[in-house]
Amino acid sequence: MTVLKNDARSARSFVPPSTPSGASAKRDAPGVIAPPPLIYLVGLGIGFGLDALLPPASLPGWLAWSLGSILLLGGLALAASFIRAFRRAGTPVNPGESATTLVTTGPYRLSRNPGYLGMTLGYAGIAVMSGALWALVALVPTLLLIDRGVIRREERHLERRFGEQYIRYRTRTRRWI
């Protein structure tokens, strides 16, 4: 695991910027609309509500458990790898805080948002395993909210903090997969 300093002399995989303190650090935070796990939980709750109100839609039990388990375990694995990568880099996991390091290794080599991809897979896994397939309909507005209210704000923040290094990373790495 390597670290890229926020200057032209270094060529490693993490990029720490000059870190603002106090009020300037708060102003430099991404300004996400809500904690992403909360957004996913609210979406799932709305999805379960839809499932209770609409005609049943289901998969055979063996398929629901098999597919749901794969989705849920994949989501948990991605979420764990994202948290590990952030902790190794010493940057906050909370998207409401200002980034101290640009992480481009681990799951971030393949996706700019492995945490949100993991939460999306986990959401889908829970919906499928519980037989609440209408909850998948609520996943669409949930993802739109994550995209507009979280990811785009984080991306603007990262571009402000890391400049050209983030732009190069964004150019070579997909947003989702």
Mind sketching the topology for me?
Layout (H helix, E strand, L loop, with lengths): L13 E2 L6 H6 L8 H18 L7 H29 L12 E2 L10 H16 L5 H28 L1 H9 L5
Antiparallel strand pairs: 1-2
Q: Could you please describe the fold and organization of this structure?
A:
The chain is built from 6 helices and 2 strands. The protein has 177 residues and is mainly alpha-helical. The N terminus is likely disordered. It has a two-stranded antiparallel ribbon with strand order 1-2. Helix 3 runs antiparallel to helix 4 and helix 4 runs antiparallel to helix 5. The protein has one domain. It is elongated, with a radius of gyration of 18 Å. The relative contact order is 0.20.
Report a brief summary of the structure.
This protein is mainly α and 177 residues long.
The share of residues in helices is: 55-70%
Mean pLDDT: 89
| β-strand amount | under 5%
User: What's the alpha carbon Rg, rounded to whole Å?
Assistant: 18 Å
Distance between the termini: 22 Å
Q: Count the helices. How many?
A: 6
Unreliable stretches: 1-13, 18-25
Helix/strand-derived category reads mainly alpha
Outline: elongated
Q: How many β strands by DSSP?
A: 2
Salient structural properties:
177 residues, mainly alpha, two-stranded antiparallel ribbon, 6 helices, 2 strands, 2% strand, disordered N terminus
